[in-house]
TRAF-interacting protein with FHA domain-containing protein B (Pteropus vampyrus), 201 residues
Amino acid sequence: MERPLTVLRVSLHHPTKAPAIFATVPSRLQHDTSPLLVGRSLDCHLQLQLPRLSRQHLSLEPYRERGSALLAFSLKALSRRGCVWVNGLTLRFLEQVPLSTVNWVAFSGVQMVIHVELGTSLEAFACCFFVSPSPLIYRPQAKESDEWEDIPQALPAPGSEKQAPGYLGSLRRPSQTGDSPPQPSTGGGTEIQLQREPADS
């Protein structure tokens, strides 16, 4: 009897909503237990057409924890020039972090929400991709880091108390530096500002 696959349900968002960015994204991709590569290169399993994206920007890497009969996953940064943000943590070249059941990822102006649905197969896994028509995402849960200031807990706008917890609002166009996470707009919902700490003068 064939064992059910672990499924990664990946929602893709981009502030510009340019259709060409996600033109080559499949709706479903089945993959063996080797790393699944994301980037601009034709060798990547998930190709995104972004000029600031590295040829191989990141990878989703399945592995087995000791004593576990299920696959677990980590996300590894492969870009030498850009960062990847995972659940509030900043990853630089060759750094990686294990994924939890729900994960918020940002890189090169793209936002991904990855839901992991565990299966029992140890031979392969599947990715189901959903390209969102909206750049709305949920607020990441910030963790301790020397890189970022604490995220202020702004009060919700009047009349917005019934919105879903963690609702972020629409996002601005990403900066041109390639090293900044997406910034929320002043639209509805809770406003979050992620900023680098000012350098000592």
